[in-house]
Amino acid sequence: MSIVYRPPLVFPATARHTATVIFLHGLGDTGHGWSFAVENWRRRQRLDEVKFILPHAPQIPITVNMGMRMPGWYDIVEMSNDPESLRRSEDETGILRSQAYVNDLIQKEVEAGISTDRIVLGGFSQGGAVSLFSGLTAKTKLAGIVALSAYLMLSLKFTELVPKPEFNKETPVFMGHGDSDQVVNTALGQKSADLLNGLGYNVNMKIYRGMAHSACPEELEEVEAFLTDKLPALGKADDKSEL
């Protein structure tokens, strides 16, 4: 199967570029679907030094969509009200392929001069699951991870896939989930957070009352606060020229 990645949607930093947020969309969407959130997060001008990268998932066959192609980070074989349905028959090949793509995006930012501890990886639904998995298994220290309406993939073998040393054991993770989510069951998101905290990871899980499989203004505000806290402005570069 041929996999083609379109160039991501990029929002350049409006000041000196010192940090980057890579945010992945959900199944059937594109990076453009989260441009409204980036505009919302930037409106107070607290993230002027941050470049936002919104990748587009490749068109792949999705089993629960009768095998038809649509933008997806990995295949979904089963989806139901059962909290465990997404974890059955996981598309490990597709998950690891998306992990490699995310790692490549991170590496390109490093080559552009951005330290990995000034990079936040985030996403929604499928994109949140890829970000959570890729961030915690990254071989470099990240500034933070955001996983909205998501869950931990390959959880039964997760500890085998984490590099040693565990670069992101203490990396702050924000997980947001609606209590009325009928797509990615809230219980699965909570179970993922509990599992990770039990393993010693630094996960803050927030449940939003009445929210379905979507985002709400309160959640977006808390993500903005998380980004502002983890990626504080550094100000102007020091002038090292000799007098």
What is the fold's blueprint, element by element?
Layout: E1 9-11, E2 19-24, H1 35-42, E3 50-54, E4 59-61, E5 69-71, H2 92-111, E6 119-124, H3 126-136, E7 144-148, H4 158-161, E8 173-178, H5 186-198, E9 203-208, H6 217-230
Parallel strand pairs: 2-3, 2-6, 6-7, 7-8, 8-9
Antiparallel strand pairs: 1-3, 4-5
Tell me what you see in this structure.
With about 240 residues, the protein is α/β, with parallel strands linked by helices. The chain has helices spanning about 35-40, 90-110, 125-135, 160, 185-200, 215-230; strands spanning about 10, 20-25, 50-55, 60, 70, 120-125, 145-150, 175-180, 205-210. The strands form 2 sheets. A 7-stranded mixed sheet has the order 1-3-2-6-7-8-9, with helices on both faces. Strand 7, helix 4 (about 160) and strand 8 (about 175-180) form a beta-alpha-beta unit. Helix 1 (about 35-40) crosses helix 6. The longest helix is centred in the middle third of the chain and has 20 residues, at about 90-110. The N and C termini lie far apart (about 60 Å). Pfam families: Abhydrolase_2 (PF02230). This is Acyl-protein thioesterase 1.
Instruction: Report the major sheet.
Output: 7 strands, mixed
Shape: globular
Output the radius of gyration.
17 Å
**Strands across the major sheet, in which order?**
1-3-2-6-7-8-9
Mean pLDDT: 93
Number of strands: 9
- Helix count, DSSP H or I runs of 4 or more residues: 6
Please report the distance between the alpha carbons of the first and last residues. Answer: 60 Å
Structural class: alpha/beta
Q: Which range does the strand content fall in? A: 15-25%
Query: What share of the residues lie within helices?
Result: 25-40%
Parts with pLDDT < 50 across at least 5 consecutive residues = 238-243
Order of helix and strand elements from N to C terminus? EEHEEEHEHEHEHEH
